[in-house]
Amino acid sequence: MDLRSEISMEKLPEHIAIIMDGNGRWAKSKGKARVIGHREGVKSVREVTEVAARLGIKYMTLYAFSTENWNRPKFEVNALMNLLVETLRKEVPTLNKNGIRLESIGDISALPKKSQNALEQAKEKTKGNTKMSLIIALNYSGRDEMVRTVQKIAAKAKDGVVKVDEINANFISNELDTKNFPDPELLIRTSGETRISNFLLWQIAYSEFYFTPVYWPAFRENEFYEAIIDFQQRERRFGKISEQL
Ligand code: IPE
Ligand code: IPE
Ligand code: MG
User: Fold this and answer.
1) Considering only CA atoms, which of 121, 122, 82 is closest in space to residue 100?
2) Is there a catalytic annotation at residue 2?
3) In a domain, 2, yes or no
4) Helices 221-232 and 34-55: crossing angle, nearest 10°?
5) What is the DSSP string of 98-131?
6) How many CB atoms sit inside 10 A of residue 64's CB?
């Protein structure tokens, strides 16, 4: 069935965020090492990113490495960091071909130097692209972002740059890592887990959640369309009643 034709182009979300989960279990189910699952997961990243840009999604945020993921075995953390560098280097031409600008959220300063460099270069080389922003969350967690943001705001208040009573929701949004991006209308999590795991806590205040049992390496074009079609069937009321919409 051609799912793409079921998508209503007038009701496309502007920003989709994805918790890409299940690489390890996907590998295990095939009798393979976890790292093989991460490699296969990169193929899903490539496919979903291209499809999103082609559809006309403006922002896509991918949870790639959380502040909690440092607690994994050292071998896996290293493999993930190496895969990141390899992928960033390899994908720049494709990003440019598809008009995709690479951006990031999270505390990049704590990543290995070579990851930081690869990321900076990929951002620099794609900064002129305007079709879609691909935002990778690296060493990111919602609470860590809030802590860093509160520290920044407190310093501004102390220095008299902002008055305490000028700090409102809008001001806070403009100090977060995500200050240049609208809040996601749709949040997808793969692998059957129904938790947020410290992802965009502030920004998902009114997001629609879509949970699927599909492991991330198996989440491809059609699965992505299914999520968007599901989203488009919902009524987003923002506290009002149906008749007011
Ligand atoms: C998601 O897959 C990728 C990262 C968190 C980096 P997992 O590695 O969490 O896979 P599972 O959840 O163990 O199956
Ligand atoms: C969330 O997945 C983080 C990323 C996808 C990068 P995890 O696999 O780390 O989350 P938990 O441990 O199941 O909550
Ligand atoms: Mg997981």
Assistant:
1) 122
2) no
3) no
4) 60
5) TTEEEEEES-GGGS-HHHHHHHHHHHHHHTT--S
6) 23
**Dist. CA 116 → ligand 3 center (Å):** 23
Residue 157 lies in a domain: no
Mutational test site, ligand 1, from 23, 38, 67, 214, max ligand atoms within 8 Å of CB: 23
Question: pTM higher than 0.70, yes or no?
Answer: yes
**CA atoms in the 13 A half-sphere facing the CB of 129:** 24
94: pLDDT confidence band, cut at 50, 70 and 90? very high
Average predicted confidence (pLDDT) for the chain: 98
Please state the domain count of the chain: 1
CATH number, domain containing residue 206: 3.40.1180.10
The answer as to whether 81 is a domain residue is yes
Whether residue 163 is predicted with pLDDT greater than 70 in this model: the reply is: yes
Which protein residue has the closest C-alpha to ligand 2 atom 10?
A: 197
- Percent of the chain's residues with pLDDT above 90: 99
pLDDT digits (tens, 9 = 90+) for 31-50: 999 999 999 999 999 999 99
Q: Is residue 76 part of a domain?
A: yes
Ligand 2 environment, Cβ below 6 A: 19-21, 63-66, 69, 193, 195, 197
Range(s) of the domain holding residue 14: 10-141+183-235
